[in-house]
């Protein structure tokens, strides 16, 4: 079982963990240390137990806020998923419009051809 030395609030602590979980332990220690540092900056040196308690409570408060947000987002997702699907109706183009556009295109091509013919001197 690996034993690591982690630092929280400027103090080192030997901690054992399961093989392969060293990264998680270091990550958790870094989170706790991030909460302890502002406490030490504001209050100065604190007894070890008090520093760890306060840092742990601050971290737990942030965790609770994130869990509340996740719960609200999951509820919103469930609400959106329970709505009936919205269908977008695409109007059908009447055949007369298609025929008129084809006639306009044919006339434009004929005009372009006449213009080409006139420019080339035919």
General description of the model:
This protein has 122 residues and is mainly alpha-helical. It has a domain at 3-82. Helix content is 67%, strand content 10%. It contains three helices and two strands, in the order ββααα. A two-stranded antiparallel sheet has the order 1-2. A hairpin with a 2-residue loop joins β1 and β2 (11-16). α1 packs across α2. The longest helix has 35 residues, at 48-82. The protein is elongated, with a radius of gyration of 36 Å. 5% of the residues are buried. Residues 63-121 form a coiled coil. Pfam families: ZapA (PF05164). Keywords: Cell cycle, Cell division, Coiled coil. One of its GO terms (biological process) is cell division. This is Cell division protein ZapA.
- Helix count, DSSP H or I runs of 4 or more residues: 3
* Shape estimate: elongated
Beta fraction of the residues?
Answer: 5-15%
The unreliable regions are none
- The run of helices and strands is EEHHH
Q: How does the major sheet shape up?
A: 2 strands, antiparallel
Helix content: 55-70%
- How many beta-strand segments? 2
| Content-based structural category | mainly alpha
Terminus-to-terminus distance: 95 Å
Neighbour order of strands in the largest sheet? 1-2
Give a quick rundown of the structure.
The protein is built from three helices and two strands. By secondary structure, the protein is mainly alpha-helical.
Any chance you could write out the topology, listing elements then pairs?
Layout (H helix, E strand, L loop, with lengths): L2 E6 L2 E6 L5 H22 L4 H35 L12 H25 L3
Antiparallel strand pairs: 1-2
Helix pairs in contact: 1-2
């Amino acid at each position: 079982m690996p034993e690591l030395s982690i630092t929280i609030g400027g103090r080192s602590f030997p901690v054992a963990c399961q093989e392969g979980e060293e990264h998680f332990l270091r990550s958790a220690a870094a989170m706790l240390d991030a909460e302890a540092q502002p406490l030490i900056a504001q209050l100065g040196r604190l007894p070890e137990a008090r520093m760890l308690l306060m840092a742990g409570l601050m971290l737990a408060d942030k965790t609770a806020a994130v869990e509340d947000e996740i719960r609200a987002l999951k509820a919103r997702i469930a609400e959106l998923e329970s709505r009936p699907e919205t269908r977008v109706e695409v109007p059908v183009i009447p055949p007369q419009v298609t025929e008129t556009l084809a006639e306009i295109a044919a006339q434009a091509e004929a005009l372009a051809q006449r213009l080409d013919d006139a420019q080339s001197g035919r």
